[in-house]
Structure formats: structure tokens, C-alpha cells
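#random but structural
TW: two for the price of one
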Amino acid sequence: MSRPLPPSYKTKNWPPYNEALKQRGSLTIWFDPDMVWVPPPTGKQGRQPQYSDAAIQTCLTMKVLFGMPLRQTTGFVESLLRLAGLDWSVPDFSTLSRRQKTMAVDIPYRGSKGPLNMLIDSTGIKAEGEGEWHARKHGGAKRRLWRKIHIGVDEQTLEIRAIEVTGSNVGDAPMLPELLDQIPADVEIGSVTADGAYDTRKCHDAVADRGADAVIPPRKNAKPWKPSTAGAIARNEALRASKYLGRAIWRKWSGYHRRSRAETKMHCVKRLGQSLMARDFDRQVAELQVRAAVLNGYTALGIPVTEPMEWRCCANQLMTVLPLSPDTFILRPRSSGYRVP
């Protein structure tokens, strides 16, 4: 029996999505004159802050977006303000470095219609060490430091709704409850999709406590748990379904394939830089959070809307039937490598 071909998809909103992709490369930057660049007095003793968190995050956004050091970022923002006709002062590099360690980054998001379906994934990003070519050729130094990024992505809007940064020695499963805690309690969570590394009692219980469905594949050697909690009961049902239907059918039936969108978002995070520029852990957390804010801004411009294409294969598996209309079909040889766009 031949292996079935993967489905092909067609983009339905290609014209607006094409415009959104063009806008992602636009250099038009707007500064709102009503923006709070200088914060009001705090009423506390000591020197008052000269720049607001919004001003610091604006500068760090330029730094992350264009991959510049702090001094170059200061000069870049100064030129932008001068072109915009604003006489605002710009924080120097030492102020940016100091405030980056303690600031709370605002990650904007639009929100989805209906319950939130979260996609959980994690990956590592290099913090210290030589490049990949130097490490491959000379073996690399013994000190190669990595950070681990854990994100929760909204399935509908493809926006990052939760992010955690840890060391490389922290596992995936302990961070799922932390990601769910970043979602406000008044937001309804429909489902949480993650890979088999999150098949633990704490993860299932955390998902069940939020009233959501856990789409987590049981491990290959999984055994039923004692049904003492709602999370354990839901996990046992998934285990029975995967054994009865088979793992491949269960993944398709449960919609587990949606988790690939979180992996794609991880690739987008690394497109802003394969390594971190900051050397302090708190500054590295702020740098990755700014990346998440930048990606959410890109996503808000537009995302593709796709639909699967219907096609059928002839009995001899040599020709593919492509529907052009309800009454018109064309035949294409499979040997030509043709795929429905």
C-alpha cells in the first residue's frame, strides 16, 4: 500500500497578506506626540526617572529589530526624533542597559474571538559562545551558554500570549503552569496543545484547573493513572483513544498537528537573531520579551488564511485529478512533481 501524500493548501487572502508582508519591511516609523516620554513624578524620595518604560521599550525595540548595540541605538533614535520634529531627549546607553534589567515589557496582542486555544512549545537560543562554524571546525570552547524559551501561541491570531525564559537545565513540563498563569483568569481557555514532554500530572492538572482540554499525546510507554483528579481522568481517556485508534489517527482526530504553528513561531523568534546580545540573565529576558512584542506587531499586520485543496489520485497512482470547477478536471502526471499551490 502506497503512503498517502500530504495535503496541499491554498492561501485565500493572498492580496491583503502580500500587502502585510510588504508593510513588515516598511521604514515608516510613527511617534505619537501624546506619548508619555517623560513619566510624571512618583512621589518617592530620590531622583525621579527621566524616561518612561514606553520610551525605554521603544529604544530597545529598535535595538532588537535592527540588531544594533546600545550606542548605535541611541544615535538611531536621535535621528528618528529629529526627522519627526520632536525635541525629546534620548536615554544614553548606560540608562538603557540599567533600565533593561528591571523594566516590565508590554507585549501587545489583539485577542481571539471565542475561547483561547494555546499552542505550547520551547526551544533554546545561544547566549554565550563561538559561532557554529568555529565550534564545528575547532570544537568550540567548553563554556557555551544557552537559554530556553517557552512560549504559548494563540492558534487563531498566531500571537504570543505567554513567554518564559529559563536556563537550559530546566525542563519543559514545569513551565506549562507558569505560562497558563500569564493568561488572565477571566479569559476562557479552550484547549492547550503540547508535545509528549508535557505528559505529566502537574501539566494535566494545571490545564484541567483552567477548564481546558489537554491535547497532549501520551508517551509510548504510558500507563493509566489513578483517576484522583480531573486532569488524570482526561489523560486516561486520551490514552485509551490513542491505543484504540492508533497514534496517527488520534493526532489527526484531536488536531494535534496545530502545534506546528508554535514551532513556526519559534523559527520567527530566531530570525531576529540566532543569539542574544545581552549578557545578564534579566536583560536577556527583557530582550526576548521585546522580540515577542515585535513579532506580535508583525502578526497584527496580517496573517495568511489557508484551506486544504481537494484532490484525488487514479488507481494506478500515476495521475492526479485537479478540480478546476465542479464540472471540470485536469490530469497532471505525478512524476512531474506538480503540487497544488
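TW: number two ↓
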Amino acid sequence: MSGNSEKLLKGAYDLHVHTSPDVMERSIDDIDLAKMMKSKGMGGFVIKSHHSTSYGRATLVRKEVPGVNVFGGIALNNPLGGLNPQAVDTAGRMGAKIIWMPTVDADNEAGKFLDTTNKKLPYWANIQRELYDMGMLREPISVKDENGKLKGEVDEILELIAKYNMILATGHLKPADSMDVVKRAAAKHVSRIVITHPEFPTTLFTLEQQHELSKYKVYFERCYTTPATGKTEWDYVLKEVKETGPERNILSTDLGQPNALLPPDGYKKFIEFFIESGMQDAEIEQMVSKNQEKLLLE
């Protein structure tokens, strides 16, 4: 089994890693992760930051560690102006690969980080609590106006994503809002769409919703940390993948927390789970490299 997982790890891409520098402690920095992935023969990764840009960092890492494809983008949270078309345009001009809809500042996450009794809160909840205590936490971000319609800024952002051929990721929006954004994105000719961890507690899509989204040729991003930290069941992730098909799924880790596995190690364990579950090598390869190559390189 371990030989198969190591073979499948070669050429694999992780579209969801949290590296340093960041506003919180991380297990590894951009350059060291690139070197580690290169040593394992992996294809590359996408740097995700909830609070700052990562596309400039990615450009420098590619120069420092040639042979590994490293990409970045922005999450449309309050530190970058929220639903800020200008930030998206700048990102596009500078070679950003992915634009996440609001994550930690999404109205879908509002106030949930204050529940300190919840042992399964994400790592970023600590920063949100600190900002709240300091009186610096701004209003949560909604993609809809008071009439329940998508805001004009969302249309501007989607048009820019299409213009610069970037990837739209749904972030931490409410599932119903994500579905409306995806449908609008398709109408705006956005051709690369990722549904961010659709089994995460606050972004939990039903199987019926996932089947509906499949009509728009989206990719469902299954993150290792969601089942690994008990936020969902391993078997449910497997069921989702089988229901929607390997051709519409990508495996990521969402790793970078200081008390967790390093991203390549978590990725290997994720692959091993699918091997143990009876999936064929070709199906797993589709989810770890081929689908990512379509998103990132074509």
C-alpha cells in the first residue's frame, strides 16, 4: 500500500495549504514546503491565506525552488476590503491563480468562533476572537443585498475572474449562496470553479446540492483535515466522491497548523485512505493530479 501511495503522490497538487508568513503560527514556510514537495516529486501547491495576498509570495517561491508549481491568490475577507473588485483586478494583473469568496469573514461564520466550548473550531478562530476582543473585527460579509439578490460587486468580481482566467473558489459562504454564485459565475463565463470543502460544518452541502452543482462542471475540494479532525466522517467523504465521481473531485489537505501533519504527509495519508477504500489508482490519480492540472495549467 505504501508503495502505491508514494507513486500516486508524485505529480500531486495540493490546492489548499496554509504556510508562513502568516498572522498565526504555521508548521512550515512557503520555501521549505516547496523544497519538501520537490523532494517527493509532487507537482506543487496553492498558498492560501485568509488575511493577506499570496500570489506575490508564490512568484518568488517558483524562482527560488524551480521545478515546483506554486500559486497564490486572495480570499475576499475584510483585510483586503471584502468584496473588492479592485483587489481582484490587481490579483489578476499580477498572476494570481485563485480567488476565494469570503472565508473567515463570511456572514456564514459570524460569531461561531466565540464558542470556546467547541473543540472542533478551526485554527483561525483564535485570530477572530482576538480581533473581536480588540474591537477591530469588522462586519461580516454577505454576497447578497437586503433584498436577497447578489450584490453588484459580485458580478464585477466574477467578470474579472473570467477576464484573467482565474479560479473561483466558494470559500465559506452559505451553501445556498454558493450555489447562486456558481450559477451566476457560469453565466459570466467563469470556467474554473472549486467548491471549497463541501463537507465542512459551516459549508455543508447536501448530496442533492452537489449533484445540482455538478451540472456546472465544478470541482469539489475534499480536504484531509475535515475528517482528520472529526468535523465529518471518513466514510461520508468517500460516499461524496463516489456520488459525484473522481472526474469532479480534487484532494487537498487544508494543513499548515503547527500541531498537525505537514501537508505532504497528510496528503499521503489521504491517498492511503482511498486506496484502502478500494478506489483504483487511475481514479485517485484523477483527483490528485489530473484535475488539478486542468485547473492550474491549462
